[in-house]
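Catalogue entry: protein
Contents: sequence, fold tokens
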Amino acid sequence: MLLGLVSASLYAADTIIYVSPEADGEALANAVVAAREYHRLHGKYAEIRLTSGIYRLYEPLCLRPEDSGLQLVGSGDTHLTGSVQVKGWKKTGRCYEADVPDFNGRPFDFRQIWVNGRKAVRARSVSDWDKMPSILNYDKKNRILWVPKRAVMQVMKEKKENSKLNLQDNRYEGLELVLHQMWEIGILRVKDIRVEGDSAAVIFHNPEARLQFSHPWPSPMYHSRHDSPFFFVNSLSLLDKPGEWYHNIRTGKLYYMPRKGEDMSTADVEVPVLETLVKITGVLDRKVSNICFDSIDFNYTTWMRPSYKGHVPLQAGMYLTEAYKLHPQIDRQNNHKLDNQGWLGRAEAAIEVDNADRIDFLNCRLEHLGGSGLDYVSGCHYGKTFNCIFRDIALNGFVDGSFSPEGQEAHLPYCPRDVRVVCSHQAVLHNQFSNIANEDWGCVAIAAGYVSNINIEYNDVHDISYTGISLGWGWNRDSVCMHDNYVAYNHIYNYARHMYDCAGIYTLGNQPGTVIEYNQVSDIAHPSYVHDPDHWFYLYTDEGSSNITLRNNWTPSEKYLKNATGPGNIWDNNGPQAPHNTIK
């Protein structure tokens, strides 16, 4: 028995294990072990019933092939949380400060905090995005970004602020520059700033300095009609607006300027410490299968890689690990010449599923997350995500399939000999996505890469920084593992709030049998600072898109793009004349 944590009905016909959040942090993990052993000894399956409350995890909950058949059900207000609370706030000048408690005996860093369930703002140099300054020049050879002098004066006050608080002068430790570049952003850690006349040279740490100045796409705009905007983040000297915060990792002090009406003596301040809450991991020859999460909330995670290595993505938040321009270009049969190469990594998600079949998430909420939301990584089949809410997520909401394996160049066709690794027959149905990609603006609500037979239907997608639904990968028209995907009856609106070269629905690659129909796309946002104000679309078939049928999609006008596409695409009855009231 689990010291009172397991009901007396454990070995009864209903095989329900009850778990309470009032028990220690191992309660849920212990319940999983009990369910596993019950199945091993008796050949029956258990349900874990989580009573209402907050379950604070100290490590991800891990489910393995031995846990197949497990059901985990919440009780209406059940939260799995990867955070600690910060208390003991004291007023100091215009701010409040508190000591961040150790986690598992050690200090830790983080990139987000939430106050009373509302995301706070990591101290930054702008509050109005339309007033971001623009870069002046981009010196690839010397790896220097030139910006206006006025844009750096506030962050150069850091020495003075450190002196006031008797802190060690660590130059620009922790300071980051966020650079807008076409369809992605770069998060670059500042190493030094040199003022020369009315300009300033900003120099960055590696590896992002090497990546940023060697990769050609996406590129920042300079000496153009719409030069790339930028802003600084994470400096005590930038903490000047209500709702902003700053953490000094050396002293363990957290500084926060309350919003109107916030009482720091009673405020619930959640600081994320985990990157992943749940990991479901099998192997191709022995998968996890038939696990269901029902009515559970997944809250408060972070993603720390940008703090250590910066973040230079290619697309949809998939970050570059190496990239450079090609001289001469590569000739590709059936495709245009290739002018660059790149290799990719993938951000952590709150829930990660790998080599697992029929893994379902029903009636769940994924909120307040610092990485991506739910990620079916590889070798996943027949999973269902139904009636879930994805909200307030820093990167992608739902992710499925490969976006080029780590060792494969991103533009090469992906057609593995063992097709079991390809995610297929997944279903994303009747979910709500909002406030997605609120940190990495180049991410999307639903990101499906190399997948087959995926169904994306009846989802409500709005308030997205970039594209709503992205389907496919590879930038080539060669035959790959993608086919028979279905995207229908989705409502996508108020998208592209920060980035252009986008669409409500966007495709890449050869996808025989894929159908996109009866979707409703409208209400493009109009940020003033995008690289090309006209380069947005309702539907967008990008490089290599082939053998895809797009029909009966309602859009206010026929603003579509067919860019370097392959053969076999069918466009039929899309536009304002298409059915309009088919979304339920």
Q: What stands out?
A: The chain is about 5% helix and 40% strand. The CA atoms of residues 357 and 512 lie 24 Å apart.
